[in-house]
């Protein structure tokens, strides 16, 4: 194992939009960017078909964008933080354009604005029709390549954070050939989400919450882990990750139907453009009842489908479906995690020297249910704030890192069936308790399943603790919303205590440990 002292140079873990933007915002300060895949390769950001929400229309405003965000968040958004994000959105779009992102525009050069679920105005900025994430990653990766101050460490996975006296001291990363210890007191997690814990997901299978495991084992607080957004319209087929059929297709008028052609959301307020949790539950209940579900774009788009949504059209055709003349088979899939590392307005975690940005962070923007296309916005906007905070933190004195055993390469395959059953669209206490009992011995072990099991166990404990139904979290045994409920923060020690005492805690009717924010 080799060791390097970075003299306090920041390390950014993750090569998606959040990590790339943070590195660029820190320039010209020297930084190290560590990414598992080649730069611009595998990341959830690349798969993002939806765009970036920004109040740019003449009939729109930051106040309206904020109202829609708060409504979707179902009472758990941080309103001050959410306002700060939506007000920064127009400038974020301009900055991305200066970095080379090619957004879709009308003939007069004006940005084309799309409509997505739970938005009261057309405010979604797209690139390449349905390839926004791919275009942003392309532009940002190219900018990173041109920035001399950013050293990119590709094909490496961070498996451990060193902590000394309550402060980050470095990372242990494993590349293609060897393990490396990098000494620094400034680390930014930008590792993405948790969809890889589920059988049906739109995320890369490697996105199982590694950043959450790293943060938890370092002693950081995590928050709102129970809130998982299931995208209602993933292309039903064998591919993993499952191809996403963007919400923007429904924004153009596509309808959800069953195998008989019945529009089963016709009586639902908002219909196909109701909040994602509502639509996902509607689709799920049809499937559970033995029906099939399809998205029908034949009337609203027909032969224009391929022009408007070229990437989706290609994915459908590869699956043997022509969306211009055939309905698209669908099912819900784990898509986005509203919870994450608890951070303040500058992205600082509860551990000194550890920041989080993007999906791995819980900023308070999304609350219990993310508003469509606010995720890329959050990553871009938060990266600037994180960079300012990281730059202001003084490089610490060199710390000699202690020898460490290299953890095995994580593998979530043993965990997916457990998480999928317990943490799906509808949950209940009995299934959650059973999942916790199965996950605990794996999470406390030292094999390839330990980190994925740890993340799933923390999410399970959080779901047990939230004895209500709110946003994306539906408990069939607690179907009502608790007006007094707040965000729940949890540390690894508290989670392990709750897990160890779970049977006694539940039988005695005592609340599981965890602090409400």
TrEMBL record:
Pinpoint the Fumarate reductase/succinate dehydrogenase flavoprotein-like C-terminal domain residues: 455-484
Is Kinase tagged as a keyword? no
Q: Does the keyword Disulfide bond apply?
A: no
What are the subcellular locations of this protein? Cytoplasm
Kindly list the organism's lineage.
Answer: Bacteria, Pseudomonadati, Pseudomonadota, Alphaproteobacteria, Hyphomicrobiales
Recorded family membership: Belongs to the FAD-dependent oxidoreductase 2 family. NadB subfamily.
Quote one Gene Ontology molecular function term.
Answer: L-aspartate oxidase activity
Q: Which Pfam families match?
A: FAD_binding_2, Succ_DH_flav_C
Q: Which GO terms describe its cellular component?
A: cytoplasm
**Pathway listed for it?**
Cofactor biosynthesis; NAD(+) biosynthesis; iminoaspartate from L-aspartate (oxidase route): step 1/1
First-listed, main subcellular location of the protein, grouped into a coarse class:
cytoplasm
**Family matches, as InterPro entries:** FAD-dep_OxRdtase_2_FAD-bd, FAD/NAD-bd_sf, Fum_R/Succ_DH_flav-like_C_sf, Fum_Rdtase/Succ_DH_flav-like_C, NadB, Succ_DH/fumarate_Rdtase_cat_sf
Originating organism: Mesorhizobium hungaricum
Q: What class of enzyme is it?
A: oxidoreductase
Catalyzes what? L-aspartate + O2 = iminosuccinate + H2O2
GO terms for biological process, alphabetical: 'de novo' NAD+ biosynthetic process from L-aspartate
Q: What is the role of this chain?
A: Catalyzes the oxidation of L-aspartate to iminoaspartate.
The cofactors named for this UniProt entry are: FAD
Q: What PANTHER family does this protein's entry cite?
A: L-ASPARTATE OXIDASE, L-ASPARTATE OXIDASE, CHLOROPLASTIC
Q: Which residues form the FAD-dependent oxidoreductase 2 FAD-binding domain?
A: 11-376
User: What's the EC number here?
Assistant: 1.4.3.16
Query: Which UniProt key words apply to this protein?
Result: FAD, Flavoprotein, Oxidoreductase, Pyridine nucleotide biosynthesis
Highest taxon listed in the record's lineage: Bacteria
State what protein this is by name: L-aspartate oxidase
């Amino acid at each position: 194992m080799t060791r390097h002292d970075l003299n306090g140079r920041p390390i950014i873990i993750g090569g998606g939009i959040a990590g790339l933007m943070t590195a660029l915002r820190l320039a010209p300060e020297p930084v190290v960017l560590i990414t598992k895949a080649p730069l611009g390769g595998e990341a959830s950001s690349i798969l993002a078909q939806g765009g970036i929400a920004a109040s740019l229309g003449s009939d729109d405003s930051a106040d309206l964008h904020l109202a829609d965000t708060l409504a979707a968040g179902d009472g758990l958004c941080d309103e001050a933080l959410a306002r700060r994000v939506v007000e920064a959105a127009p400038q974020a779009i301009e900055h991305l354009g200066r970095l080379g992102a090619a957004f879709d525009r009308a003939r007069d050069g004006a940005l084309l604005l799309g409509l997505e679920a739970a938005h009261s105005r057309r405010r979604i900025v797209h690139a390449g029709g349905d390839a926004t994430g791919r275009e942003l990653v392309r532009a940002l990766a190219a900018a990173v390549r041109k920035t001399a101050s950013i050293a990119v460490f590709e094909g490496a996975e961070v498996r451990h954070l060193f902590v000394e006296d309550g402060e980050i001291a470095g990372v242990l990363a494993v590349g293609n050939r060897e393990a490396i210890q990098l000494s620094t007191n400034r680390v930014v997690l930008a590792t993405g989400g948790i969809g890889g814990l589920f059988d049906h997901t739109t995320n890369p299978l490697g996105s199982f919450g590694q950043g959450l495991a790293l943060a938890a084992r370092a002693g950081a607080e995590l928050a709102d882990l129970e809130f998982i957004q299931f995208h209602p319209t993933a292309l039903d087929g064998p591919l993993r990750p499952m191809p996403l059929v963007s919400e923007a297709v429904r924004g153009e008028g596509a309808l959800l139907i069953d195998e008989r052609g019945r529009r089963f959301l016709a009586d639902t307020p908002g219909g196909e453009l109701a909040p994602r949790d509502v639509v996902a539950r509607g689709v799920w209940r049809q499937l559970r009842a033995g029906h099939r579900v399809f998205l029908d774009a034949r009337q609203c788009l027909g032969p224009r489908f391929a022009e408007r949504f070229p990437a989706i059209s290609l994915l459908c055709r590869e699956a043997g479906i022509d969306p211009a003349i055939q309905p698209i088979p669908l099912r819900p899939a784990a898509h986005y995690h509203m919870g994450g590392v608890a951070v303040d307005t500058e992205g600082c975690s509860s551990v000194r020297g550890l920041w989080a940005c993007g999906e791995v962070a819980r900023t308070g923007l999304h609350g219990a249910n993310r508003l469509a296309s606010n995720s890329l916005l959050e990553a871009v906007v938060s990266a600037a704030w994180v960079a300012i905070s990281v730059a202001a933190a003084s490089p610490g004195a060199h710390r000699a890192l202690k020898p460490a055993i290299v953890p095995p390469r994580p593998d979530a395959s043993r965990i997916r069936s457990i998480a999928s059953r317990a943490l799906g669209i509808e949950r209940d206490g009995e299934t959650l308790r059973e999942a916790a009992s199965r996950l605990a011995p794996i999470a406390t072990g030292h094999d390839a399943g330990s980190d994925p099991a740890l993340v799933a166990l923390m999410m399970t404990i959080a779901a047990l603790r939230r004895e209500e139904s709110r946003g994306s979290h539906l408990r069939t045994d607690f179907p009502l919303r608790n007006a007094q409920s707040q965000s729940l923060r949890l540390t690894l020690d508290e989670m392990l205590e709750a897990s160890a005492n779970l049977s006694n805690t539940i039988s005695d009717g005592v609340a599981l440990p965890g602090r409400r924010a």
